[in-house]
Design brief:
Elements: H1 5-9, H2 12-24, H3 37-62, H4 71-99, H5 106-115, H6 131-150, H7 158-186, H8 190-209, H9 216-219, H10 223-229, H11 237-254, E1 265-267, E2 272-274, H12 280-290, H13 294-307, H14 309-316
Antiparallel strand pairs: 1-2
Helix pairs in contact: 3-4, 4-7, 6-7, 6-8, 6-11
Bound molecules: fe (ii) ion (2 copies).
Length: 319
């Protein structure tokens, strides 16, 4: 909705009150609308991180395109990698519109990624060592992403909510693709079954970390509160992690796989899954680009960005 010029003349407190009223009534905020600075900055950070994680997230699976075990699997994983890059492009466009008043562009997003200022999701710093890992990424990482992203389908910021609608529809295919790989391995030889158990064992903590720390005291920030206050999302990190447990633990166990956490159980009285906390100091290290594959993947992105820069420059020349 385009705001009237009389709105522009209002003092900031009144504009904020009107803005909050719009959010409360479920009205969508659009790129050209007035918005408080912390709303804009929170969205830029969230959407840039999401967009860049889609792009960095394509890298572990890209490594499996030449090594996929059959033509059918190769085509499927290639299509998924392509989709993820597309999600990244879509989201970075949304972030760029928000950055326009700050005179910043995609160039700054990439520079921030390469300098370490802009973080990408912890799971994409991990090594995809086996075909089991490639399957697990689709099944459980995309599965986790569906849980966090559907929680933002009604985000107060219209362009993000609309982009997520399309992205989530494609993520469902990704999760099915991953599930198909895992099912085939689960029905296979002893060696294949051992391969997926090994993937679960190595990826479990990263999957728990995917949803972020449970409360602000762990990080010293209250990012969750800001996103919830502005109705960008509705559930906390812990609620999302619990949703993931409820959806996937029965599925993992039904395949005869074991969780690498003997303390994991559902507490009926509290209605919550009880689990062993991952090492959150390790999480902080990973997202600071000190994960197993952080440097290598950033280097790859940098090479691809610098060697393809001439295309961007050629396209931006006006004749
Ligand atoms: Fe994606
Ligand atoms: Fe995906």
């Amino acid at each position: 909705m385009a705001e009237t010029s009389s709105f522009d003349l209002l003092p900031d407190e009144q504009r904020l009150a009107r803005f909050m009223e719009r959010i409360e009534t479920g009205e969508k905020i659009e790129a050209d609308d007035w918005m408080p600075e912390d709303y804009r900055m929170t969205l830029i950070k969230l959407i840039s991180m999401h967009g860049i994680s889609e792009i960095m997230g394509a890298l572990p699976e890209k490594e499996w395109v030449p090594k996929a075990p059959s033509l059918k699997r190769k085509l499927a994983i290639m299509a998924k990698v392509q989709d993820e890059m597309g999600h990244g492009q879509l989201l970075l466009r949304v972030a760029e519109d928000l950055m326009e008043p700050l005179l910043k562009s995609r160039e700054h997003i990439i520079q921030d990624l390469l300098s370490g200022k802009l973080k990408f999701h912890n799971v994409f710093h991990m090594e995809a060592k086996t075909w089991g890992d490639a399957g697990l990424i689709g099944w459980l990482v995309d599965g986790a992403a569906i849980i966090t992203q559907t929680n933002m389908l009604n985000a107060s910021y219209g362009p993000y909510a609309r982009a997520l609608k399309r992205i989530c529809a494609e993520e469902v295919f990704h999760a099915q693709h991953g599930e198909a790989i895992i099912m085939a391995l689960a029905e296979g030889t002893g060696k294949q079954k051992a391969m997926i158990q090994d993937s679960i064992d190595r990826w479990w903590d990263a999957l728990l970390m995917f949803f972020g720390p449970g409360d602000a005291s762990t990080t010293g920030t209250s990012k969750q509160d800001i996103t919830m206050k502005y109705k960008i999302r509705t559930k906390t990190n812990e609620e999302l992690r619990q949703d993931f447990f409820s959806k996937y633990i029965p599925r993992v166990l039904s395949l005869g796989l074991k969780l690498p956490d003997e303390t994991m159980h559902f507490d009926k009285t509290e209605g919550l899954w009880k689990y062993r906390q991952p090492d959150w100091s390790q999480f902080k290290q990973i997202i600071k680009n000190n994960g197993p594959k952080s440097r290598e993947r950033l280097r790859l992105r940098e090479i691809s960005y610098t060697s393809n820069k001439w295309v961007l420059e050629a396209l931006s020349v006006r004749v």
